[in-house]
Amino acid sequence: VELGANWIHGVLGNPIFEIAVQHGLVSVVNIPKPHKIVATTEDGVQVPFSILQEIYEAYVCFLRRCDEYFLCQYSPPPDINSVGEHINYEIQIYLNSVDDPKEKRLKQLIFNCLLKRETCITGCHDMNEVDLLELGSYTELQGGNIVLPAGYSSILRPLTAEIPKQSIITKCPVKKIHWKRKKTLTGLDTVDEGSECEQDSDDSEKTVTEFPTAASSVASTTTNNNNNTATNSPSRGGSADSDSNDDFPIQVTCEDGSVFKAEHVLCTVPLGVLKQNHKTLFDPELPHYKQEAIEHLMFGTVDKIYLEYDRPFLNADISEVMLLWDDDKYDLHTSANEEIYSNDFLNKNWFKKIYSFAKVTDTLLLGWVSGREAEYMETLDNEIVADKCTEILRTFLQDPYVPKPKKCVCTSWKSQIFTKGSYTSIPVGALQEDIENLAQPLYANSQASKPAVVFAGEHTHSSFYSTVHGAYLSGRTAAQSLLGKEEPDEIILESDGSDLSAWIQGIALD
């Protein structure tokens, strides 16, 4: 099962899709798979498909309107700052025209379910956290979502094939990056920010400190000694070539005591880990504008729940069961009150954030959960999760014979110490500019032609954040800034809404 990234998001202009096609990892077949969604309420009432389709189309329209604020000159209604507030405002206007109270209630439940689904797509706890004016900064590539049949790790094989095995070191966590050092009588020492006469300001293009340029220029931009990866160090462990090593301005210390000396560091540490450790990871601390960017951006938690069965029990043509929870009974989606997210509350309600169970195969179901509920789910034993999911399916399908799964596998992205969450989104009050600031390289001194520290990862791509292709492109740009003679040209991916993209959107890629 796929515990991490699930899809290639879009086809046109997506480098991950191009790699997948080039290496025969996806096959393009013009036969759409049958996709039948059933939506039911807690008392087992199945919603007519026409109503489901009507509400889904209205919802997509509301979401597109939120997207438009990023580029347009209009202002949203007063006191509406988040995507959730704006969509709920539109939902109320829409539902005011529905006379039948039962129909109105049902339509509200479908909207609530779609908003929960959106928290998993966006990577947040609640859509009220997501900035309305910045939602459109995310660029969607045309062509729909594609699953890799051999799993996402199959993409890594062709990408790592050219790298010598000894150049990739695992299980060696980094403790500290000394990135701004100056020559002293005993060698190179980390600059003490407090006592240095700093030249850097938040407005400047480069973050600089007076510092004599290192004489050596072989470390990571050339392919000497078979070390041809941008993050490789010319020496590990210190004293062997101490004379030449002291010319390297960067020193990376690991938890096991080993030391790497280099001219450049490419930092792809996830935003969740930067949020927790940036003050202790970098020496000296990151410039103020960068620390602010890390603190402003949101790194949400999205988890998966896989349920494996001995035999199929859902009707063969059903591909997904949408769960229309009656949230008003629990006041789940309206209250921003922190107290309701006590352990006691989450214990009774965490599972109501699961918006659907979708078939991966006839005997494998997948549920998604986000935010605080996901964090709480990570603390539970898989058996408890499996029992709760069985209870949910029996209730919504009104079938006491729904079997228990033979196996339940849950992800735990928030608890993992090297991720601390899932992916990046822009919360109320933050800006696309925060991502751009986070991506800015750091220069050790004002004369340096190339940066000392370069940042990459999905959290550093200002229009493809939260995606694998965003991470890939940011890494490629970072590597080019170290390898190229000059600053790299900006990579811009444009996709128009021509007939070709519309045609591709209708293709099933399996």
Write up what this structure looks like:
The chain is an alpha+beta fold and 510 residues long. The chain has three domains: 42 residues, no CATH class; 226 residues, Alpha-Beta Complex (Polyamine Oxidase, Chain A, domain 2), CATH 3.90.660.10; 102 residues, FAD/NAD(P)-binding domain, CATH 3.50.50.60. It is built from 14 helices and 21 strands. The protein has a six-stranded mixed beta sheet, with helices on both faces. It has a five-stranded mixed beta sheet with strand order 8-10-9-5-12.
Summary, kept brief:
The chain is built from 14 helices and 21 strands.
Indicate the topology:
Elements: E1 8-9, H1 15-22, E2 28-29, E3 37-41, H2 49-68, H3 83-95, H4 101-122, E4 145-146, H5 153-160, E5 174-178, E6 181-184, E7 187-190, E8 235-236, H6 242-245, E9 250-254, E10 259-262, E11 265-267, H7 271-281, E12 282-283, H8 288-296, E13 298-300, E14 302-308, E15 320-324, H9 343-349, E16 356-361, E17 364-370, H10 371-377, H11 382-397, E18 407-410, E19 423-425, H12 432-439, E20 453-455, H13 468-483, H14 499-505, E21 508-509
GO molecular function, one term: polyamine oxidase activity
Family: Belongs to the flavin monoamine oxidase family.
Keywords: Cytoplasm, FAD, Flavoprotein, Oxidoreductase
Q: What is the CATH level 1 assignment of the largest domain?
A: Alpha Beta
Gross CATH architecture of the largest domain = Alpha-Beta Complex
Oligomer: single chain
Counted up, domains total 3
The overall pLDDT, averaged over residues, is 85
Task: Using the CA coordinates, give the radius of gyration.
Answer: 25 Å
Please state how the strands of the largest beta sheet are arranged side by side: 3-15-16-17-14-18
Largest sheet: 6 strands, mixed
Span of the ends, CA to CA: 16 Å
Predict the CATH topology of the largest domain.
Polyamine Oxidase, Chain A, domain 2
Beta-strand fraction estimate? 15-25%
Using DSSP, what is the number of strands?
21
Q: Overall 3D geometry?
A: globular
Class computed from helices, strands and strand pairing: alpha+beta
Low-confidence stretches: 195-243
Tally of DSSP helical segments: 14
What fraction, in percent, of the residue positions are helical? Answer: 25-40%
